[in-house]
Amino acid sequence: MRDVAIIGVGMNKWGELWQKSLRDIFVESALLAIQDAGVDRIDSMYVGCMTSGLFIGQEHLSSLLADYLGVGSIPSVRVESACASGGLAVRMGFMDVASGMSDIVLVGGVEKMTDVSGDGATYALSTAADQEYEVYHGITFPGLYALMARNHMDRYGTTREQLAQVAVKNHENGSKNPLAQFPHKITAEQVINSIMVADPLTILDCSPITDGAACAVLCPATMAEKISKKPPVKIIGTGNATDTIALHSRSDLTTLNATVKAAERAYQMAGVKPDDIDLAEVHDCFTIAEIIITEDLGFFKKGEGGKAVERGLTALEGQKPINTSGGLKSKGHPVGATGVAQVVEVVHQLRGEAEKRQVKDAKIGLTQNMGGSGGSAVVHIMQKM
Amino acid sequence: MRDVAIIGVGMNKWGELWQKSLRDIFVESALLAIQDAGVDRIDSMYVGCMTSGLFIGQEHLSSLLADYLGVGSIPSVRVESACASGGLAVRMGFMDVASGMSDIVLVGGVEKMTDVSGDGATYALSTAADQEYEVYHGITFPGLYALMARNHMDRYGTTREQLAQVAVKNHENGSKNPLAQFPHKITAEQVINSIMVADPLTILDCSPITDGAACAVLCPATMAEKISKKPPVKIIGTGNATDTIALHSRSDLTTLNATVKAAERAYQMAGVKPDDIDLAEVHDCFTIAEIIITEDLGFFKKGEGGKAVERGLTALEGQKPINTSGGLKSKGHPVGATGVAQVVEVVHQLRGEAEKRQVKDAKIGLTQNMGGSGGSAVVHIMQKM
Q1: Which are the contacts of A28, defined by CB distance < 8 A and separation ≥ 6?
Q2: Residues in CB range of B236: below 8 A, 6 or more apart
Q3: Are the beta carbons of B92 and A77 separated by less than 8 Å?
Q4: Would the pLDDT of A119 be above 80?
């Protein structure tokens, strides 16, 4: 296998983009990534998108987006693994370059969620859960994550305040990210007193509905050294894993097995340990998710994730900065785009381009992207070349 | 890159399967393929599915199907390129094995179309076209292919009778396939006199709505020689290409550019020419499609596809047997499964297991799978090892 590097990244300003369609925001982000990479061709492309069929009545994004990007007749693939679709697109692009089949590969993610048709966004998102055994009985994602939160609180003494601190920290980071959907600071009091969605999770514990896209350009590491205008970033580890799709099938609701396995595979491939990671972008679709994930990635002992955020260990200036971009919570969560946007942030950090969010001396970064209530997960580890 | 072989194939009996859900038919087919291969583990899996979100309100098949197949926490990916989703799943599995990332890979396709929720099957399928510029104005797939048919008839003198002969031939072949949805012979008179859908295409020019799945097991060719119970089949060429998603953006409606390009890439990789192909499974979603595709694959000169079927050249005993399985027309067209089922048929033919449909001395077979009105295409070339 060839070593693979990231030589360009780009994303549009996320938000409620009523004036732009899915194809517009994808092309905008793709052109930014291509310009950042300074390449004049793309050999193949991978697009992560969860459910453009239910959101906007459009499948076949492989053809649509290659067409609108004007890249001719290149091979093009859409991948889907619910909210882990973007991470999988990065992984497929990695494999394409590593195998030797393609040299310059565009990977991207996109979701257009606000002008939803049909049965609405909650229904569209619920298709990431087990429809026959979960959703038909009335539960949706805030409810599923609330079950995990209650379990974690009961078993480990995680507090309501600690959950809120995840949102506070991520909004603090997001306030320094001009591309974030909600670049506003919030307080723990505001989180706790906002509208209840699924006890204990209020609306400010939940990531928002977002229109957005993010892209990156990959190529062989040897080629990156020659053609890259900016410091290239090497993908040193990739891991993908699955778990039961339904929460009720799991023996433990306080750990996310797919994340544990995907991380194990990525750490092994990269030859690094959790302690070696300088910063990480993780899938904080709900505040409880970030707490569980930071434990499952091995950053903190099981049950210590809530205390870690409370003590500021995961803040920008902490020992293990988490979600410096603002995370899904503040930056936004256009589901298919999220996994690629995590990579965009890590590349900016490793290049030293993260401005007010810059983590000092960042050399190794990790992304963790997951689908549904954790039924799938993708982990990537990247290093400055 | 490592050479890749197919060591097992399986598919369920296709049809209107009211008693079985998507997960049931996928697992049924996957277990048949795993049994056929004689393996006791799967390292990763790829599933092609077009729009389970719109058909049954279920995305996240990567997790759902790995879960129900009981293969633990393995990496799992769902790919989508409209009706070419199955072909892409095979291509991704090929890349995974070729790259050295995985050894034993399950590739499959599935679609559960009959018990459709929401706005119905025609709407769900229309999401493979350009929603904003085609579908919102009222056209659906029979109409798009009818435009191609009229253009081909006007330019090359292709006749209504020749279109009907494609359906007659494929039902003749399908009558010998016990897994086909409609294993019944039909006459040209029946085709021409059946209900008009979009002039000149009647309902018997159109492939049906089908529930079905198909799977294959891939591994490195060197491993196949050691572990395969049955004669392994090598994938010697793979090609994927895209075209404009909308028909009105093309300069010529009588050729499918993505198919031309995907075939060029596959022929080049395999080092073979159209004349070397002993049999092919092609994407006869409508009768006109088979005529255009057999020209675009280089089997016949442009404009000669209609005459070729009329002369029996594409029949089971002809010089270039096309769709020996019955094709989409008679075997059925569960959209995401079709591309994998084409590979299942070619493997059976190359192994000499196709019983009443067996093509004599078949050594090299080709599959051509496409999405929408040809906006994407995947071509594979396989050879007996």
Answers
A1: A12, A20, A213
A2: B269, B270, B271, B272, B364, B381, B382, B383
A3: yes
A4: no
Predicted confidence at residue B178, as pLDDT, reads 98
- In 3D, which of B173, B4, B25, B18 has the Cα closest to residue B108? B25
- Strands A211-220 and A105-112, how do they pair? antiparallel
Q: Do B59 and A249 touch (CB under 8 A)?
A: no
- Asked if B140 is an interface residue toward chain A (Cβ–Cβ < 8 A), one would say no
Stretch (H or E) spanning A329: helix A327-331
**pLDDT band at residue A118, thresholds of 50, 70 and 90?**
low
Our CA-based measurement puts residue A94 at a distance from the nearest CA of chain B, in whole angstroms, of 10
Centroid of chain to Cα B61 = 20
- Answer yes or no: do A74 and B101 touch at CB < 8 A: no
What's the token pair of residue A265? 């595979």
Identical fold for domains A4-119+210-227 and A139-207+235-384, yes or no, is yes
Q: What amino acid occupies position A216?
A: A
Whether chain A has a CB inside 8 Å of the CB on B124: the answer is yes
CA B146, chain centre distance (Å): 20
> Measured between CB atoms, does B205 come within 8 Å of chain A?
no
Q: What CATH architecture does domain B139-206+234-384 belong to?
A: 3-Layer(aba) Sandwich (3.40)
- Per-domain residue ranges of chain B: 4-119+210-227, 139-206+234-384
Cβ atoms of residues B332 and B15 within 8 Å:
yes
Chain A residues 42-81 within an 8 A CB cutoff of chain B: 44, 50-54, 56-64, 66-67, 72-81
- Which regions in chain B score pLDDT beneath 50? none
Give me the amino acid identity at A322: I
| Res B115: pLDDT | 84
The model scores a pTM over 0.95: yes
Chain B residues lying within 8 Å of A239, measured CB to CB: 75
For the stretch A370-380, pLDDT in tens is: 999 999 999 99
Residue A34 reports pLDDT greater than 80: yes
Whether CATH 3.40.50.300 fits B4-119+210-227: no
Annotated active-site residue A206? The verdict is no
State how far the Cα of A25 lies from the Cα of A384, in Å rounded to an integer: 28
Which residue is closest to A83 within chain B, CA to CA? B60
Q: CA of B51: how far to CAs of A48, A103, B228, B243, B382, in Å?
A: 14, 30, 34, 20, 28
Query: Is A139-207+235-384 a CATH 3.60.15.10 domain?
Result: no
Q: List all residues of chain B from 233 to 262 with a beta carbon under 8 Å from chain A.
A: 239-246, 249, 257-258, 261
Is residue A61 within 8 A of residue B371, CB to CB? The reply is: no
- Give the number of beta-carbon pairs within 8 Å between A and B: 212
Please indicate whether residue A333 is annotated as part of the active site: yes
Q: Kindly report the backbone phi and psi dihedral angles of residue A237, in degrees, each rounded to the nearest multiple of 5, phi listed first.
A: -155, 140
Cα(A340)–Cα(B316) distance, integer angstroms: 48
